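User: Can you model how zinc ion sits in this protein?
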Amino acid sequence: MDSHLEDLFTLLRFPSISTASEHAGDVRACADWLVQKLTGMGLGVELHETPKHPIVIARNDHREGRKTVLIYGHYDVQPVDPVELWDTPPFEPVIKDDRIWARGATDNKGQLMAHLLGVEKTLQEKGELPVNLIFLFEGEEEIGSPNLVPFLQAHKDELKCDVIAVSDTGMVAKGVPTMGYGLRGIACCEVLVTGPKGDLHSGVFGGAVANPATAVARLVASLHDENGKIAVEGFYDDVKPLENWEREMWAQIPGVSDEDVLRITGAPEAFGEPGYSSAERLWARPTAEVNGIGGGYQGEGSKTVLPAKAMAKFSFRLVPDQDPADIQKKVKAHFEKHAPKGVKVEVVVGHDGKPYYSDPHSEDGKAAQRALEKAFGKQPVLIREGGSIPIIKDMQDILGADSLLLGLALPDCQIHAPNENFWVENFEAGIKLNGYLLEELAKG
Ligand code: BES
Ligand code: ZN
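Assistant: Here's the modeled complex, given as structure tokens:
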């Protein structure tokens, strides 16, 4: 275990923040370290340049007649701010209370390393793997994988595989092995509202000129009706209704009741679309979220100003069969239609990603469930995920392969937040899981 932790700690020390251009060198150094590690394991390794951050590919010797398994992961991480809220520095990993604390510990370096070290262990013990393996590690997941889709298209033949394994998702609770068979998609946009040419005295001009901050508030409020249903015309048109087997299965899953959600989040009351449980709202229903809102005076005391401009940022989580491009169009039309009088409204369309769905009862799905059961000593639960990994649907479309989502993140891992952490026991279980997974997949 010590050498396993040492390798993970080395990976965690690279501040590979993909969104921050000043960290481009660190992202690159992180990729270089992976290349060196994978080469040391006896794999054939390629580093592919992209306009931003490199893609790392590694393979064992492929043999005719064996199943080809692609394992995907990302070595980039989210920014660390607000850095003052971290108990220990984000890029100086430590073990405390049986957890590893660092940015990327769970999302996704810890989970990526569990696969890598699982493969290393099998190679050391058996001299070979039971499958043809392709590792695909990217450095741009946290910025929407802009260069991976063209890469997949250009290298479609070399990346051809039967199935994909990904550990970049969650477990519903500690000790409860979890297989994901769906992910929500995403569509992001920004609304910029402008009014007068500069900030105004709210007494001298207020009442005769529209207030951009009021307009933004109206636009934000226009997205939902009073019950929490999304009011964008046609928004639910392509939403696949939940099926009974899923609702019944999810009702039995621990860790996702309304009470659990309140306990984990600290929210005072459960809230969401009427007629659905928290699990259903999270995994099978779309959302409209305002991620940030700004404009006007935010300092101490009061300032009687009529701000010249205001803004808000939005993300919409999507479910099968919603199409992000179609939703972007409908949302833009909604904001334009609801633009309050007296101001200018500009809608800037951002990045997006398609929702993902696959059959959890496929042969490979069943093999993955057997592997989870062996690694955790318990039968796995089957869920869809609320989060998004846009490339998973692209891989389904371009490579023709489904992804087995074998998450090791717990609800209290604080991914994307200060004090991100990864349970050591999940790291160890993940390493074992990889061995069982390749064995079980090879059988089918
Ligand atoms: N690993 C997460 C996604 C995730 C987390 C899925 C937990 C399921 C459970 C991934 O790194 C992530 O944060 N994705 C972004 C995608 C976006 C930047 C396009 C997300 O979901 O916000
Ligand atoms: Zn993430």
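A couple of observations from the model: The two ends are 31 Å apart (CA to CA). The chain has a mean pLDDT of 97.
User: Helpful, thanks.
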